[in-house]
Design a protein that fits this description.
Keywords: Signal. By secondary structure, this protein is an alpha+beta fold. The protein is built from five helices and eleven strands; from the N terminus they run αββαβββββαββαββα. It has one domain. The strands form two sheets. Strands 3-4-5-6-11-10-8-9 form an eight-stranded antiparallel sheet. Strands 2-1-7 form a three-stranded antiparallel sheet, covered by helices on one side.
């Protein structure tokens, strides 16, 4: 009887483990999936892209401070070592840019979550959705707790800020920059 109970418990745990790993496997992303796309021509800008390549899509920017550029239509990009270290879309970007997976400014937070999934940092009603993407393993995490600077540069933070449930700002930035600033 004990053996049968133990086997039943192991079987239930195994099933639980399988279904949970299958669920995690449902949403696979790449760094490019967490980038932005021009609605006019479909060209992408994403984390790690060379500044010259990003500006071929975004146009000529105005430097606001060292490494931070403002572009037309409410797009901001921050560069570290000549590469995109952060992107921010504000309300003006609504008709011009969207994310690579079709999320955009003006959509309801629930729609945004339906695109990117429910593996994100804990949230409360009327707060931002924050996803943590491990670029090395290409999986979403439920927390932003890098052990060191190297690991922090490997975690991409993808946030949808909202007001009254409507996304009004989208931010893509690595964990390192959130705690150390954009400049290195």
């Amino acid at each position: 009887m004990r053996t049968a109970c133990a086997l039943l418990i192991l079987f239930i745990l195994a099933l639980g483990g399988c279904s949970s790993s299958e669920k995690e496997d449902e949403k696979k992303f790449t760094v490019e999936d967490l980038g932005i796309v021009s609605k006019a021509d479909g060209r992408k800008v994403y984390y790690g892209m060379k500044q010259a390549d990003a500006e071929a899509v975004l146009g000529q920017g105005k430097e606001r401070r060292e490494g931070e550029f403002e572009y037309a239509f409410g797009v901001y990009a921050f560069y570290r070592d000549g590469k995109v270290a952060a992107i921010r879309l504000e309300e003006e970007a609504k008709d011009h840019y969207k994310t690579a997976l079709d999320a955009e400014i003006g959509m309801h937070k629930d729609q945004f979550e339906s695109i990117y999934g429910d593996v994100h940092m804990p949230t409360i009603p009327d707060s931002q959705l924050t996803y943590v993407f491990d670029m090395k393993k290409q999986v979403l995490l439920k927390e932003n707790k890098p052990k060191n600077d190297k690991e922090a540069k490997n975690l991409l933070i993808f946030s949808a800020l909202e007001y009254d449930g409507i996304v009004d700002t989208i931010v893509i930035i690595d964990s390192y920059s959130t705690s150390h600033g954009i400049k290195e």
